[in-house]
C-alpha cells in the first residue's frame, strides 16, 4: 500500500484481483471511497481458475499423489484431504454455474447449499463429510474476499 497526499491507494493486496485499485479520499470535510471499474470478465475467470488450481494442488499435496477414492475404500478417515477436495469441488461447482449466468448468483446459490448441507452433516456425519463441506464453504468465502461480486 502506498500513501499519497490525502489518498490511500489499495494495490497489490491478495484480497484484490490484479488490475483493481481503490482510492480512499481523506479530505478534512468528509471521507468517501472511489473505486476503479470492476475487473473484466476474463480477469474474474482467471482468478476463479487460479483458486481452483490452488485447491487442486493442495489436494494433491495432501494425498501424496494417491487417489482420494483409495482412502475411502480402505475406510481411512482423512479430514485434511477431504477439506481440500471440498474446496476444489465447491469452486468447480461455482465455475459451472457461472458459465451460464451471473457469478455473484452462482457463488451465493452454491454457498447457501453447501452451508445448509454442512449444518445438517454436523449433526449426523463423520469427520470426512464435515471437513469436505467446511472446505467448500470456506472456499466460497474466499471468493467473496477476492472478487468484487456486488456493488
How would you characterize this protein structure?
Helices cover 61% and strands 10% of the residues. By secondary structure, the chain is an alpha+beta fold. It folds into two domains: 2-35, no CATH class; 41-146, no CATH class. It has a four-stranded antiparallel sheet with strand order 1-2-3-4, with no helix packed on it. A hairpin with a 6-residue loop joins β3 (22-25) and β4 (32-35). α3 packs antiparallel against α4 and α3 crosses α5 (127-146).
- Order of strands, main sheet, comes to 1-2-3-4
Strand content: 5-15%
Give the count of helical stretches: 5
Uncertain segments are 1-34
Radius of gyration: 19 Å
Number of domains: 2
Q: Given the C-alpha coordinates, what overall shape results?
A: globular
SSE topology string: EEEEHHHHH
Major beta-sheet overview: 4 strands, antiparallel
Number of strands: 4
Residues in helix, %: 55-70%
Overall average residue pLDDT = 75
Provide tags for this entry:
151 residues; alpha+beta; 2 domains; four-stranded antiparallel β-sheet; 5 helices; 4 strands; 61% helix; globular; disordered N terminus
Layout: helices, strands, pairs:
Blueprint: E1 2-4, E2 7-10, E3 22-25, E4 32-35, H1 41-63, H2 68-74, H3 79-98, H4 103-124, H5 127-146
Antiparallel strand pairs: 1-2, 2-3, 3-4
Helix pairs in contact: 1-3, 3-4, 3-5, 4-5
Amino acid at each position: 500500500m502506498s500513501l499519497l497526499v490525502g489518498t490511500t491507494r489499495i494495490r497489490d493486496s491478495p484480497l484484490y484481483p490484479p488490475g483493481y485499485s481503490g482510492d480512499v479520499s481523506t479530505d478534512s470535510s468528509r471521507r468517501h471511497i472511489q473505486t476503479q471499474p470492476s475487473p473484466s470478465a476474463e480477469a474474474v475467470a482467471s482468478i476463479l481458475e487460479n483458486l481452483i488450481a490452488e485447491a487442486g494442488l493442495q489436494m494433491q499435496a495432501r494425498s501424496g499423489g494417491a487417489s482420494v477414492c483409495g482412502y475411502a475404500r480402505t475406510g481411512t478417515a482423512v479430514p485434511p484431504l477431504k477439506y481440500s477436495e471440498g474446496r476444489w469441488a465447491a469452486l468447480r461447482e461455482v465455475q459451472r454455474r457461472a458459465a451460464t449466468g451471473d457469478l455473484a448468483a452462482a457463488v451465493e446459490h452454491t454457498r447457501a447449499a453447501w452451508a445448509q448441507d454442512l449444518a445438517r452433516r454436523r449433526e449426523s456425519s463423520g469427520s470426512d463429510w464435515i471437513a469436505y463441506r467446511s472446505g467448500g464453504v470456506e472456499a466460497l468465502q474466499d471468493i467473496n474476499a477476492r472478487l468484487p461480486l456486488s456493488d
